[in-house]
Amino acid sequence: MRQTVIPHIGMRIVKTAVAVMLSYAVFAFLGLTYREEYGGIWGKLGPLYACIACIVCTQSTLGQTLRQGVSRLIGVAVGGALGVLVLLLGPLAEGPGRVLAVGAVCVAGVWFCLLIRRPAACAMACIVPCVLLITGVEGADRYYYAAARILETAAGVLIALLVNLALPDNRQEETAPAPAPGKEVKPMQVEVKNTTKKLCVIGDPVLHSRSPVIQNTMIAALGLDYLYLCQPVARGEAAQWLACAKLAGYAGFNATMPHKVDLVPLMDVLDADAALFGAVNTVCIRDGRALGFNTDGAGFLRALAEAGIQAEGRRVALLGAGGAAKAVALKLSASGAERVTICNRTAARGEALCALDPLGRLRPAGFGPDDLRREAAACDLLINCTSLGMGGTEGQFEDFSFLEALEPGVPVCDLIYNPPETELLRRARALGHPAMNGMGLLIHQAVLALEHFTGTAIDAAAMAPLIRAALSAD
Predict the structure, then answer these.
(1) How far is CA 34 from each of CA 73, 79, 422, 474, rounded to the nearest angstrom?
(2) How far is the CA of 339 from the CAs of 9, 316, 358, in angstroms?
(3) Which domain-ending residue is among 268, 296, 324?
(4) Using the 8-state DSSP alphabet, how is residue 266 labeled?
(5) How would DSSP label each residue in 294-321?
(6) What's the chain's Rg over C-alpha atoms?
(7) Does residue 289 lie within any of the structural domains?
(8) CA distances, 237 to each of 233, 263, 290 (Å)
(9) H or E element: which one contains 381?
(10) 260 is annotated as an active-site residue
(11) 178: exposed, middle or buried (C-beta count within 10 Å: 0-12, 13-18, 19+)?
């Protein structure tokens, strides 16, 4: 007999209620409750879309609230534009033509939002034009109506953001409560059917990879008909593997060293990040064509945002110039970092990385104690992209005194996730600095990869505790 679980009233529910009440109260206080006598846009304004935006956005973490809100604004703007364009057709959009128009705007809205990779915008891109067409709003009121929906949504997003800033987020505890003492955690199970689509990770070596645990955990939680495997592929055999993957009907695969660079010329289509980084870590196979993506840079930005750190305007000291450093540095530059200083032992390698930045925000520096102290003193974000301190390796920072040169409160990030707290992070925390390990990057780049593979929007905040539990149990 299945046991009914009653959800507790956690902070996420409280925040949603507070945001909705505030949205309604603000509009009611201003007298904006769809009062036609006001005329123009003001007469069309009310709290409905603001409340809807609050419900959606406060179900997300602080970092996701902004992304959800931007997506809703985009959806409303796209839907309003499509609706107005159809209304301009006049008699062609009346009678039976209205049925076709409703279908056409839905297709166009969803297609455009997916084209710009904003799946969360799809709903509003359909709802707004459908309401415009079906309610029979006429004349200038049509345009007032569309503008009012955009303003309402913007107000709701702002209120949701303020509520998420003001109230604590216990998402991890709410999403995945710890099992009762003595109760065994059920092992992850993935059902395999004849229709199951295959995914995998390739590399050399690769049998140590945690990707199958991470991806199969998400696949099981989402109920997707996929199976994620681990496939050793020797150095230099990426082309042969790609041909085999197409022949065997793989939906796609992830790639780790040494194949990321070798895959670039083999792709039929490269996304902007893969082309900029000169490396592919995610390949989708569709209709016999290989589409190459790189999720490392975007995954790192999502991990930063989750920790409440924005890249824009930052002066970054980045240690290392390898593949991970390249993705992080170039993505930080493209996202508006004021400057990114690449500290590397081999000067030529650091200079080569800086030369790849089309915006010229990267600059090289040395890796000696004096160099690190100087760059630490001038930065407001320190990121370690080297393997120093990684579990299973002997390398370690010889001197941590550069941490003492950091200004108070400067965040310190380490892309290493094993061990969870490196000596660098331990010492940074002891000095009072916010510290973040590489687990967030690992999770977010994996979420982005699965979104590419399946076309499914995934709530990373909901997946993170499940992935951490699966990794700790593995």
Answers:
(1) 20, 20, 57, 56
(2) 44, 6, 13
(3) 296
(4) G
(5) --HHHHHHHHHHHTT---TT-EEEEE--
(6) 25
(7) yes
(8) 6, 10, 16
(9) strand 381-384
(10) yes
(11) exposed
Tell me whether residue 438 is in a domain: no
Asked whether residue 456 is assigned to any structural domain, the reply reads: no
In 3-state terms, what secondary structure has residue 228? strand
Adjacent-strand bridge partners of 269: 291
Check if the beta carbon of residue 415 is closer than 8 Å to that of residue 383. yes
In tens digits, the chain (474 residues) has pLDDT values of 344 444 545 666 777 788 788 888 888 888 888 787 787 888 878 887 777 767 666 655 555 556 666 777 787 778 778 877 777 776 665 666 767 777 887 788 888 877 876 776 676 677 667 766 666 556 667 677 777 877 887 787 788 778 877 776 544 333 334 444 444 444 555 567 778 999 999 998 888 888 999 999 999 999 999 999 999 999 999 999 999 999 999 999 999 989 999 999 999 999 999 999 999 999 999 999 999 999 999 999 999 998 889 889 999 999 999 888 999 999 999 999 999 999 999 999 999 999 999 999 999 999 999 999 999 999 999 999 998 988 767 788 989 999 999 999 999 999 998 888 999 999 999 999 999 999 999 999 999 999 999 998 899 889 999 998 888 876
- In angstroms, the CA 463 to CA 27 distance is 35
Q: Which is the catalytic residue, given 15, 44, 260, 326? A: 260
Within 10 angstroms of residue 371's Cβ, the number of other Cβ atoms is: 17
* CATH at 238: 3.40.50.10860
Domain-embedded: residue 43: yes
Q: How far apart are CA 2 and CA 6, in angstroms?
A: 13
Eight-class DSSP state of 54: H
DSSP H helical ranges for 176-257:
211-222, 238-247
Q: How far apart are CA 292 and CA 242, in angstroms?
A: 12
